[in-house]
Structures are given as structure tokens and as C-alpha cells.
Amino acid sequence: xxxxxxxxxxxxxxxxxxxxxxxxxxxxxxxxxxxxxxxxxxxxxxxxxxxxxxxxxxxxxxxxxxxxxxxxxxxxxxxxxxxxxxxxxxxxxxxxxxxxxxxxxxxxxxxxxxxxxxxxxxxxxxxxxxxxxxxxxxxxxxxxxxxxxxxxxxxxxxxxxxxxxxxxxxxxxxxxxxxxxxxxxxxxxxxxxxxxxxxxxxxxxxxxxxxxxxxxxxxxxxxxxxxxxxxxxxxxxxxxxxxxxxxxxxxxxxxxxxxxxxxxxxxxxxxxxxxxxxxxxxxxxxxxxxxxxxxxxxxxxxxxxxxxxxxxxxxxxxxxxxxxxxxxxxxxxxxxxxxxxxxxxxxxxxxxxxxxxxxxxxxxxxxxxxxxxxxxxxxxxxxxxxxxxxxxxxxxxxxxxxxxx
Length: 405
Known about the structure:
There is one protein chain. This protein has helices at about 15-45, 45-70, 75-100, 105-135, 140-170, 170-190, 205-220, 220-235, 240-250, 255-280, 285-305, 310-335, 345-355, 360-375, 375-405. By secondary structure, the chain is an all-alpha fold. The longest helix has about 30 residues, at about 15-45.
């Protein structure tokens, strides 16, 4: 019996296996994210050092994304992802062991965050570009939406469960369960029939292929705008790993449970956004949707400047999560459907670069503002600058479009 229209990508056997395996693994990923942030605050009590962990976790993407994209376009994606997921499993178990024995220090967390970021430099764009081969171009938008739904469903359940576990048993169990969760996605990958083999190359060097991908992104107006919007929103607005624990602890005076609740609110909004996209069923979203949701996420973030109640913080985070997922899923779909197949790995690496690679800059920026001026000011500055940047970039794009006409 086929799945209904809103879940139609699950009719593809390989995507269905991959999706269920990844959904389980993502629960563990969010549990580790909450545990890691709380552990750093317990070890250092420093907003800046928490921002540094975020920077270390995403800095490799900033420096190696272009190289990773060209490599991904040359390798079988299924085998590559099995390798990256195995390393991530070992990273989680190492962190769990250090925490369980009581030997964990800040530099341990920093080093393992750097390892996580290095592996994700290959893993993220490989998984993104693999989806079109698992679900096909017709159902790609639905596949991206379902992937986002799994990610954000895990963002609701994972932090809530992690908050309870951390409060009662400590952070080590959250890290251990994350390690175990990778078994599900590795088993799913081993069962796939799709290899994700690279398309024939034109005999060019790795350096030439990197240059080709960058030139295409810069000279194609729609791709250039999407990547520019992703850049500013990711750097200035999407800093939840740094700001939400500070909001919970310093502004709202909540413990680990309250932190988990706020992260779950963010995930609930994102899950609602994914559900709306699935019901709409559009193959390729309009540019207006990208711009409006980028502006909405920025404006809602700026509103956090005045929030001092837990229920109001949860409500605003719900709105941010909704706008953010519609924005990022729309950007992902536009890039994958709008580029030639042989460039898809490089475009997804550029997507990872601007969506996650600039996070170190944003994490250190907002962490520094929060430490010097307070968490509310960090929210206000990030959201305000993000909204201004979205408006300026969109106005320039429209002006250039009119000039071309």
C-alpha cells in the first residue's frame, strides 16, 4: 500500500530505510548536543568558552567544504557515509567514557568537537546530495521535508529526554545513547541497494572542479542569493547551541529540564514547518518563500531581546523554529533542483559551508556579546543585523533582476 502524498518519498525503498535509520540516530545527536552544552557550562561557567566549542565544531566545515565537495562528487556516497557515521559513533563513545569516569576536561570536549566538525565536513554534504538518488528528482522536495521532520522531531524528543537524563544521571548517559543510536543508520546504509556512484568526470583536476563549482554559484543569480541569505541567517540568527543554554540558565534561571524544554519548543516549531511543507507538496519553492521566512526568523530572534518569561521564550522559539525549517528546506531544494547533477556534491558543500561553516564566527560573535552585554543583547543584535542583511540582499537582487530585464 503506497504512502499518502505528504509522505510519498517513503514509497522509495532505499529512502525509507535511510530515513528510519537516520531518525533514530538523530535522537541521539540531539541528546549529545544538550549534554555537551550543559557539560561545558558546568566545567567553565563561561558563555565565551561555550561559543568556542560551537566554533570548533563547525570550523572544519568553514575551511574544508570546497575540497570536500569535489571529493564527494568523485566517490560512491553510500560507502563514504558508512565511514563517516562509524567515526561519529566512536567519537560519542569516547566522550561518554571520559564523562563517566570523571576525567573529562574542557580541552577533551574541545578536541572531540573539532573531530565531530571534521567528519561532518564530508558527512553533511554527502548525505544531502545522496537524497536525490534515493528518492528521485520528482520526490526530492518531499524527501528533504521528511528529513527535516525527522531532524526536528528528534529536536523535540532528544532535548526533552536529555534534560531528564542529565538532571538525574549526568551527561555521560546522553553521550552513550548517542553512540548506540548510530548503529541504526549504519545498518540501514548496509541494506541499501543504491550506491550513489559518481557521474563521469571530464578529466579535470580537483582544483579545477572546485573552481567550477564556485564560479557556477557566483554567476547564477538565484543560487547566489540563496547562498547569501543562508550565510547571514546562519551566522547571525541560528546560534541556538550557544544562546539557548545561556537563555535558560542566566535569563530565565532554569536548570537542565528547562533547557531541554526550550530546545524542544524550537524543535516543535520546526516540525510544524516541515509538516506544512509536506502538505503543500511543491516541487520547487518560490524565492519569495525563502526571503519571507529568512526575514521572519531574524525578526523573531530580535524579539528575544525583551523576553523574560519561560512560556513567552518557548512561544518565540516555536516561531523561530517554524520559519527556520521552511527557510532551510526551501534553500536546500532550490539548490539541488537548480544545479547540474555533476555539480550537486559541490553545491551541497557550499550549502554546508554557509549553513554550518560560518557557525564558528556566529558562535564566537554572539558568545562574546552575551558575555559582555548579556544574552538578551546578543539575541537583539543578531536578529536585528540578520533582518537588515536580508532586506539589503533582496533589494540588490531585485535591482539586478530589473537591470537584466
